[in-house]
Amino acid sequence: MRAVLYARVSKDDFSKGKKTREEQAAEASNSIQAQLAAAAELAKAKGITIIEELVDDGISGYSGKERAAFNALMGYIIRKDVDYVIARAADRLGRNDADNSSIRMALADSGIPIMGFSGELTDVSSASGGLQFQMAQAVSQYQSAMKSEAVRNAVKLKREKGEYQAPKGTFGYDDEDRSKLVPWEADLIKEAYLLVADGRTVGSIVREWNEKGVPQRKGGARWQYAHLNNILKRPRNAGLVDPDGEPIGKWEAIVEPELWHTVQQVLATRKGTAPGFQPVHLSSGHARCGVCGSSMRSNTATDSRRGTRVKILRCAAAKKGERHASAHLMDLEALVHKEVIAAFLFGGDLLMPRHEGMDVDAMLTKLQRVQADVQDVYDDFDADLITAAVKRERLVQLKERREQIEEQLEEARQSNASAHMLLDLHRRIFTPGRVSLDDAVTARQQLAERFDALHIEQRRMLVAKLLDIRVLPGRGLQKYFVTHTVVTSLNDEAA
């Protein structure tokens, strides 16, 4: 019998300050090391082989943060690769609605039971086991929600009183008295607001700051898009506690609230992905709002029925008071994952890569060399080794070289991703005009494993290439419309 072990410890599992003997004992028994040891002892006694130990260390299950080990656990359950899931308790698996719902449905569908450290089994596919699992998770979620609510209330009270000062090192504010401005930094920030409101891009302002040699407060070598973008989104700059609040006058404002809100609307409606931003979801940025056609971005929202935070996709162009589309992220991700696998399963001939022998690693190395050469040009200019004219000429040449490599790299990534998915499977399961149904189930599982093993960037490229995703307002799975753009025989219209 085979099992996968899942162990997790949240940062707030360890209390601060002086501890009683009981608290010290509880922390020791809850540690990752203790969980691994207890699971190993249980497996030995039961004659079970643990094929992998999945650990999320220091990550709250309630926060909704990405958990790599949890995602891997879901993969084992969906593929039915194990006989048991071993965990200290149900609350180790998830402590928010999105994760609880996902793993409960996956366990119920697969029939794989959870084995606790005392050896008890919980079969979520049964009525009693499902109820027991839901009750255990509801209690743990309630405990997490109470802790989170207490922290939020304490922070909210401090903010409303003006006692929640800017963190030390905040660009624009004085470290000695963080309610006061640093005049020259504040002037730069205000100018950036005015430029963005007038149509300038954040990236162009970043380039100007770097060319002028504007120093970063925390000692970074060069400004990046994300740095300035985050600064422009700070409500504090307008004297606000939160975007929908009123100015409180407890600290000096850099800009008027009207200008701040104008810039937020500009930033929210601009298309494209900021340089350096790394999406972690298949559908984020690819899904489109069925109302206005704008891209949808990942976010969190409060479930009004339960009062908890869940992951969603939200229309980037929606303004306050307007009703645009939104999506439950886990539901849409599962649907997109399923449709990509179907495309490779039934459209292998269409998706076989046309280019062979492309070395992605070599091209990435070339791209890194170009980026290093760009930095060298700036360094030579700063050291007065080259003139401004020579600097411009070299940068233009490097830009052309970079764009050429990036074009080849995108083609290679798509080609290699497709080859990775279909390698060894194509000749075995595909014959002209049909699919061998005897091997289809095994092939689907192998395709899912290979797709999950790809880098998120490659997975997202395949989604963009294969699917058109639209989300309409409303509730339930009926509002999600996924259309195949390559394997069109899978679309309902074609069927």
Task: Summarize it.
The protein has 495 residues and is of the alpha/beta class.
Walk me through the structure.
The protein is of the alpha/beta class and 495 residues long. The protein folds into 3 domains: 2-157, Resolvase, N-terminal catalytic domain (Rossmann fold), CATH 3.40.50.1390; 183-269, Putative Large Serine Recombinase, Chain B, Domain 2 (Hect, E3 ligase catalytic domain fold); 334-490, no CATH class. The chain is built from 16 helices and 13 strands. The protein has helices at 21-30, 32-46, 68-79, 97-110, 127-160, 183-197, 202-212, 225-232, 257-269, 329-346, 348-351, 360-382, 388-422, 426-429, 437-453, 456-466, and strands at residues 2-9, 49-57, 84-86, 114-115, 121-122, 287-289, 296-303, 308-315, 326-328, 430-431, 434-435, 467-471, 480-484. It has a 5-stranded mixed beta sheet, with helices on both faces. It has a 3-stranded mixed beta sheet with strand order 6-12-13. Helix 4 packs antiparallel against helix 5, helix 6 crosses helix 9 (257-269) and helix 10 crosses helix 15 (437-453). Residues 12-18, 271-276 and 426-435 have low confidence and may be disordered.
